[in-house]
Write a structure and sequence with these properties.
Layout lengths: L2 H9 L6 H8 L3 H14 L4 E6 L4 E6 L2 H14 L6 H14 L7 H8 L3 H16 L4 E5 L3 E5 L2 H13 L13 H18 L13 H15 L13 E5 L4 H15 L6 H11 L3 E3 L2 E2 L12 E7 L3 E3 L2 E3 L1 E6 L6 H14 L2 H10 L2 H14 L1
Parallel strand pairs: 5-8, 7-11
Antiparallel strand pairs: 1-2, 3-4, 6-7, 8-11, 9-10
């Protein structure tokens, strides 16, 4: 005989005599009265079961309709109506305990889940066993309650385990729908990365020295971007720029910006107009072409490494950074030109960028090259 069963039975009728209850649940009158007492403790402030002489039986009186409805819902999810209820509670308890550092009493957990403290105590044995699989312990202290003791890593591993139980190997969508679901998720990820250009580094299942070094380099490269965040993007990088003249280099990079970064089509014409006024090759193998006036939108930089050095006025250029100057203020532009001033004074850093021909190394040298020199 469970609390939810008793409440459901009484909620469906005006009253029920003691004989009806003993017959329905196949228990003694004493057991019925004991369960009514315990159920009233659980329903405190929400409803109350009492004996009504006029009706000649026990009556359920609801005090708080909204709270009582919520109680019924939670009891159906976490109560003992079926064999899976205890498993659901155990999962809930593991999750709750892992997400907190403070003590929690058995009584408070029983109140939240609308079951008896005895049921929680029984569930905690299974909780303790599950935690033990991840070198976590369930610490107990009189009057304080219980809490989980163990490392943050093991907590996260245990959380990941209970989150994936019943998911891995299942296919709620059906084989025919899976490709569309995967396509939709991939599209969401691509849009999110466009809006929030967060660096992504692919690693092995178990970190090795190469993974650690690459992660550290990526963090170093992005940590000091500050106002320069959003200026560069791998999609705006051409490691093998097919150009033999400044005109070809400017046109190639400007067209790439129009196609991939949404830059205005007039960027090509404006950048060529600026170049005709004076050369934008500044030495150290670097050229910084840019439009003769600012364009609508944020400032963006398109980078290209020619297959062969380009004779740019009286200088040889091996790295071209086309700066699409926007109207979004001067913070980003100020950051960029301060970095370029440092790059120009260290020709070996330009050489490292050209030799490696990767976006990651270019960003490392621009953002933190002074630490490498």
């Amino acid at each position: 005989m469970k609390a939810i069963e008793l409440v459901t039975y009484l909620n469906e009728r005006e009253a029920a005599s003691i004989d009806e209850l003993t017959s329905e649940f196949e228990v003694s009158a004493r057991t019925v009265r004991l369960h009514i007492q315990r159920t009233n403790e659980m329903l405190e402030g929400l409803a109350h079961i009492s004996y009504a002489r006029k009706q000649g039986g026990y009556v359920l009186s609801v005090i708080n309709e909204e709270g009582f409805s919520e109680w019924l819902d939670r009891m159906h999810r976490f109560g003992d109506l079926d064999g899976s209820a205890s498993e659901k509670r155990i999962t809930y308890l593991i999750n709750d305990l892992l997400m907190r550092d403070d003590w929690v009493t058995v009584a408070s957990m029983a109140q939240v889940l609308y079951v008896s403290p005895q049921s929680i105590s029984k569930d905690l044995k299974a909780v303790e066993a599950k935690l033990g699989e991840y070198d976590l312990a369930l610490e107990k202290r009189p009057r304080y309650g219980v809490r989980v003791r163990g490392s943050e890593l093991n907590r996260r591993l245990c959380l990941a385990s209970i989150a994936t139980e019943g998911v891995i190997g299942s296919n709620p969508f059906g084989d025919e729908t899976v490709p569309q679901v995967v396509k939709t998720i991939a599209g969401c990820i691509e849009r999110a990365l466009e809006e929030h250009p967060i660096p992504v580094q692919e690693i092995h299942s178990f970190l090795n020295e190469v993974d650690v070094r690459q992660i550290n380099e990526l963090l170093r490269a992005s940590a000091d971007m500050g106002a320069g965040a959003g200026l560069f993007d791998p999609a705006w990088f051409d490691p093998h720029l097919d150009a033999e003249t400044p005109h070809e280099a400017i046109c190639g990079l400007a067209e790439l910006m129009v196609e991939r970064a949404g830059a205005p089509a007039e960027l090509v014409e404006l950048a060529l107009e600026r170049e005709s006024a004076a050369s934008t090759a500044f030495g150290s193998g670097l050229a910084l072409p840019h439009p003769i006036r600012s364009l609508p939108g944020p400032t963006k930089v398109c980078a290209g490494i020619p297959n062969r050095p380009i004779r740019w006025g009286d200088k040889d250029v091996e790295l071209v950074l086309l700066v699409a100057i926007g109207d979004d203020g001067r913070n980003a532009l100020g950051w960029f030109f301060s970095r370029m001033a440092e790059l120009l004074s260290h020709e070996e850093r330009v050489k490292r960028i050209v030799d490696d021909r990767s976006f990651e190394v270019m960003m490392q040298e621009i953002a933190h090259g002074e630490e490498r020199s």
